[in-house]
């Protein structure tokens, strides 16, 4: 009887702390951010700051929750600003970071943008190194007592993948912006994807991975091409997906986004990324 009472007490404590089978369900987060290797401006100093917004509906809408101070002439800023939020796994929460270069004489330039899945961030031990869409990456970490985690999603033992191996996947997208508008007439584009990769967030040497065929006239394309990638778990590889609109004269870039390959494997090789500007791209095992 005493053992049973202890078990009930342990379950109650876990529920109170938001723990279920080792997974944090709710938590109070206090977050700080640094930038690394940000995009350098032309003929002027770079004075970066960021605005952070919170979405609680999977990126459909977002609300600004904070703005950092500006750090003068620094491409590797460590912002002192910290912000807080209440994490709830049931709310499909994302943070949107928009990094700007502060200018006095003109509109502030965009240095980079990225969405962060808050549940993934918590599961990584409140540590993440997401790539920005233009150049560089952010270091996003907790300010709580104790050391932050590894910054990696745990790969389940039953993931059925080796330490190194060949991954094959297909791509689809949803909600891409219109690109070929004529006056007030909205026209969908003809999208295709270029795929390349780097070994780790600090690496800038891109390796070509592949390209899809063009899907004509679609905001929700499904590409049937199979992309093959040589995965090495120990290299912290990142894949960049760049979506273009194919035109006769010029191919316009819709958007691009980075994926941490280890995260894709940890998610069972079925992963959706929010694009920085609009829409999403899904990577699915072929």
Description:
The structure is a single chain. With 286 residues, this protein is mainly beta. 10% of the residues lie in helices and 45% in strands. The protein is globular. The strands form 5 sheets. Strands 6-3-10-9 form a 4-stranded antiparallel beta sheet. The longest helix is centred in the N-terminal third of the chain and has 16 residues.
Summarize it:
Residues 1-131, 147-275 form the C2 domain. The chain has 286 residues and is mainly β.
Assembly status: single chain
- What strand line-up does the widest sheet have? 6-3-10-9
If helices are DSSP runs of H or I spanning 4 or more residues, what is the number of helices? 3
Overall mean confidence score, pLDDT: 87
Biggest sheet statistics: 4 strands, antiparallel
Strand percentage: over 45%
Distance between the termini: 52 Å
Question: Which term fits the overall shape?
Answer: globular
CATH fold title of the largest domain = Immunoglobulin-like
- Helix share, percent: under 10%
Q: What gyration radius follows from the Cα positions, in whole Å?
A: 21 Å
Count of distinct strands? 18
Low-pLDDT segments, ≥5 res: 3-20
Feature tags:
286 residues; mainly beta; Immunoglobulin-like; 2 domains; 4-stranded antiparallel β-sheet; 3 helices; 10% helix; disordered N terminus; Protein BONZAI 3; signal; C2_dom; C2_domain_sf
């Amino acid at each position: 009887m005493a053992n049973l009472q202890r078990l009930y007490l342990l379950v109650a404590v876990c529920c109170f702390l938001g723990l279920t089978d080792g997974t944090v369900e709710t938590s109070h987060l206090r977050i700080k951010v640094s930038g690394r290797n940000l995009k350098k401006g032309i003929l002027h100093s770079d004075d970066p700051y960021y605005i952070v917004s919170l979405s609680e509906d999977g990126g459909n809408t977002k609300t600004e929750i904070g703005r950092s101070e500006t750090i003068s002439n620094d491409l590797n800023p460590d912002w002192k600003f910290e912000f807080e939020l209440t994490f709830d796994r049931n709310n499909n929460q994302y943070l949107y970071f928009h990094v700007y270069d502060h200018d006095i004489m003109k509109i502030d330039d965009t240095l980079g943008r990225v969405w962060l899945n808050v549940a993934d961030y918590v599961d990584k031990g409140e540590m993440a190194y997401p790539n920005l869409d233009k150049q560089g990456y952010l270091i996003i970490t907790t300010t709580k007592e104790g050391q932050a985690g590894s910054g990696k999603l745990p790969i389940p033992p039953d993931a059925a993948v080796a330490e190194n191996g060949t991954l094959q996947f297909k791509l689809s997208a949803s909600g891409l912006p219109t690109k070929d508008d004529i006056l007030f007439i909205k026209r969908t584009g003809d999208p295709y994807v270029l795929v390349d990769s780097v070994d780790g967030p600090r690496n800038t040497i891109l390796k070509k991975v592949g390209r899809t065929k063009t899907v004509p006239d679609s905001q929700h394309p499904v590409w049937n091409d199979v992309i093959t990638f040589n995965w090495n778990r120990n290299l912290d590889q990142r894949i960049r997906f760049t979506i273009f609109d194919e035109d006769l004269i010029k191919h316009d870039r819709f958007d691009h986004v980075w994926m941490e390959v280890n995260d894709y494997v940890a998610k069972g090789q079925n992963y959706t990324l929010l694009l920085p500007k609009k829409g999403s791209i899904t990577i699915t095992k072929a």
